[in-house]
Amino acid sequence: METMIDLDQPTTYQQLDRSDMLARVLEMDRQAQDAWNIATSFDLPAEYGQARQIVVLGMGGSAIGGDLARTLTARHVPIPILVSREYELPAWVGSETLVIAASYSGNTEETLSATDQALAVGARVIGLTTGGKLGQLAEQHGFPVLRFTYEAQPRAALGYSLFLLLRLLVRLEYLPEIELKVDEALAAIRQQTATCHPDSPTSLNPAKELATVIHGSLAVVYGGGILAEVARRWKGQFNENAKHWAFFEQFPELNHNAVIGYEHPAALEQKIQVLILSSPLNHPRIGLRERVTSQLLGRRGVRSRVLRAEGQGELAQVCHMVVWGDFVTYYLALLNEADPTTIENIDFLKAELGKST
User: Can 141 be counted among the known catalytic residues?
Assistant: First the structure.
């Protein structure tokens, strides 16, 4: 398909990228570093480090930071962490629960509803936001709120939503000090940003090349272990950045159901591109499952590609893959002749829901 944008001519991007989403994609390292510094100087009540469970409230781009933080810390934090995308809290949330309400705008209705419930049951609440109603709620009830300033769509502020959470977990001593690992992550972000930079031609640019392959196809993203929630992130970025149908599945669960669904409808087989996000740091059986699943897809004539994470340490590899996906979906938006920033369907949905409040 011919498009109005030439990926190897960055000067053409502004025809569609009117709000400069590219600038947000290019500066994830700055977001991460700023978030780490902000959370380092944030005052926290000592009792917030003595909870028996942690619940992160959020939706969309605000929730994904919680998903990634939960996955990365699961083997290190000695208490359970739940990411809740609901209006209502689980019944077990109480005075010994740390509730982190994450809302970029501060106006996310699901998060506000659950925060009200957390306050009602005496939970220990922290807000992560740029302001809005969540900021006002913090002022009314006196719970700490970590405010940051960054002009972007929530999904384009992942450096904040992830690294603010990680630093809070360290500060509250739920997680061992990870300063060195943060340095590794920042290095991985910068390396991948350079590799996928608009000035790098398609022949040398894995993000541009992959966007070209996916253009016109249904994207299905597989990931397991530390990359399970990265697959969710890629799916959301395909939807919001590229305005593109996409789905995600997670290993090993997908091997217990999804692989049986490869047979029908046969007409879809040539329209699907499966992306398998792979890390050498995952359990070796996940790597084996990735290889066998690729074979199964090939037997059905479904295109698949294994994308391998790079970097030292789990956080570095997660960040490497996140940046890759952000660039792929940005370039795909241009190929789809879509503005990578706008969210017209969500705006319509919110307006309609607002009529019923």
Answer: no
Residue 197: active-site member: no
Domains in the chain (CATH in brackets) are 10-14+189-335 (3.40.50.10490), 23-177 (3.40.50.10490)
pTM above 0.85, yes or no: yes
Cβ(289)–Cβ(251) below 8 Å: yes
CB atoms within 10 A of CB 173: 11
How do the pLDDT tens digits run along the chain, 357 residues long?
A: 556 789 999 999 999 999 999 999 999 999 999 999 999 999 999 999 999 999 999 999 999 999 999 999 999 999 999 999 999 999 999 999 999 999 999 999 999 999 999 999 999 999 999 999 999 999 999 999 999 999 999 999 999 999 999 999 999 999 998 777 999 999 999 999 999 999 999 999 999 999 999 999 999 999 999 999 999 999 999 999 999 999 999 999 999 999 999 999 999 999 999 999 999 999 999 999 999 999 999 999 999 999 999 999 999 999 999 999 999 999 999 999 999 999 899 999 889 998 886
Among residues 184, 229, 240, 314, the one annotated as catalytic is 240
Reference 111, options 137, 92, 91, 143; nearest CA is 137
Sign of CA dihedral 24, 30, 35, 36: positive
- Residue 343, SS3? coil
- Of 2, 256, 352, 355, the active-site residue reads 256
Is 240 catalytic? The answer is: yes
